[in-house]
Amino acid sequence: RITRHYKFNIKMQNVTRLCQTKSIVTVNGQFPGPRIIAREGDRIAVKVVNHVQYNVTIHWHGIRQVKSGWADGPAYITQCPIQTGQSYVYNFTVIGQRGTLWWHAHISWLRTTLYGPIVILPKKHVPYPFPQPFKEVPIILGDWWKADTEAVINQAIQTGLAPNISDAHTINGLPGLVSNCKAKETFKLKVKPGKTYLLRLINAALNDEMFFSIANHTLTVVEADAVYVKPISTNIVLITPGQTTNVLLKAKSKDPNANFVIAARPYATGPASFDNTTATGLLEYKKPSLSSHNSKNKKLPLLIPVLPKFNDTVFAMNFNKKVRSLANARFPAKVPKTVDKQFFFTVGLGISKCSKNQQCQGPNNTRVSAAINNVSFVMPNIALLQAHFFNQSKGVYTTDFPSNPPFKFNYTGTPPNNIMVSSGTKVVVLPFNTSVELVLQDTSIIGAESHPLHLHGFNFFIVGQGNGNFDPRKDPSKFNLVDPAERNTAGVPSGGWVAVRFLADNPGVWFMHCHLEVHTSWGLKMAWIVQDGKRRNQKLPPPPSDLPKC
Ligand code: C2O
Ligand code: CU
């Protein structure tokens, strides 16, 4: 087995965006961070050394972490943070996955600047199930704040109000044409006429789902969340924070002398204000060297793509429904056909009582909260995985997470009188190999809103989705158990529901949360504990000796 070694020095670096320079937290001084590249089956060892004043952890988003839960990364879930001056080696093997994933900080809001792509190539001599691209290009969507984002979120938590929004969205770290310094701050994709490119799209934005499009070009979606899908030909891709989407781009414009704008803009359904800036880049055709002389100083026409309305939920639902697994002999869809345990969780916003150390500015000393089943998750002081592994759950977590919401009402109608949520560090315990069916219903209590729910440690199959209230008598009969999308992040539709299935065959503690960072901060998160199996190869090994201490 090949091991790919990486060293991540977490350090401050001055970076200029929107014509202003600020000091940000980076890996090795790079923003966006370095690319990790491996083949399916390789082992990856990343030594993370913390040289900054903040506590840090890194998460390998979408990596299944089969029996390597200690390397998953979410702070206080699978590990205590790496403190200033300390280091930790994340050690894991890529099993049964190939495609695009990504890494990001998993503590507070540090992932604003700490993120980068993970490219997993197929095993040697194994081709893609689509035409071999001429070139592969990671494209990471993100955002940029002029302010220090740790201060932004800390202030929001103190006041109980919504945090400030970002100042721009970015493509590969660059805002593009919105910047007054656009000459230096625009991502350019130069292509050769006639060639096919594989764009590895990653949405690393903090709080916005994004539409992505390139003027006058059709994109073919071939992979989502590191799982091949049936090709979808489209002008617009919808991608939620946490998701990755590979698309093929054929450079065959009839008008290769134009400048084609690459655009990414939010899809936003929530009542909270969002940053509606469009990040832009440019697609340019390489000219044969002779003619380049002539066209050098000529102003080329700028072609701009058309994107859906910012709150186009119909587009979103239709796009998500089109994503289907290949489900063929080479890449079968291993959908659990039977279900051992069914869960119905509500997800949404509410309000909660302000705690003692806050000065909340919400009405009657309340703060904005977000919850699953009306429980807003409270971060423990030591890592749940440690507490579970060493049988020290007392005072750390409880296992009384409601398996059904404590209230029943019309989720798309009038909100209930009481929109207070409770709080706690509650988990669900699953015996090894439990086949789980989980329905996630948007509560719409403070307005309907889409929530990209991300599950660590597993991919789930999206067997159903719909608008309005989930109907347990009618909807399951329409579930797709043949070729559902297999993903690690799925949007709970605004004012609707999504049903997923997964097999709990990976022992450990697995975080599940909304990937809109503001909702996570407000408590839209919970954890699953998957117990060891009976056989020796079904147990989580003990932690590595350098696992950080709290
Ligand atoms: Cu992409 Cu829990 O994270
Ligand atoms: Cu959310």
UniProtKB/TrEMBL annotation:
Cofactor: Cu cation
Cofactor, free-text remark: Binds 4 Cu cations per monomer.
Known catalytic reactions: 4 hydroquinone + O2 = 4 benzosemiquinone + 2 H2O
Domain Plastocyanin-like: residue ranges: 10-124, 136-287, 401-533
Enzyme nomenclature, EC number: 1.10.3.2
GO biological process, one term: lignin catabolic process
Enzyme class: oxidoreductase
One Gene Ontology molecular-function label: copper ion binding
GO cellular component, one term: apoplast
CDD domains tied to this protein: CuRO_1_LCC_plant (cd13849), CuRO_2_LCC_plant (cd13875), CuRO_3_LCC_plant (cd13897)
Pfam family, one: Cu-oxidase_3
Entry-linked InterPro entries: Cu-oxidase-like_N, Cu-oxidase_2nd, Cu-oxidase_C, Cu-oxidase_fam, Cu_oxidase_CS, Cu_oxidase_Cu_BS, Cupredoxin, CuRO_1_LCC
Entry's localization field: Secreted, Extracellular space, Apoplast
Coiled coil: none
PANTHER family assigned to the protein according to its UniProt record, in alphabetical order: LACCASE-4 (PTHR11709:SF522), MULTI-COPPER OXIDASE (PTHR11709)
Function noted in UniProt: Lignin degradation and detoxification of lignin-derived products.
Name of the featured protein: Laccase
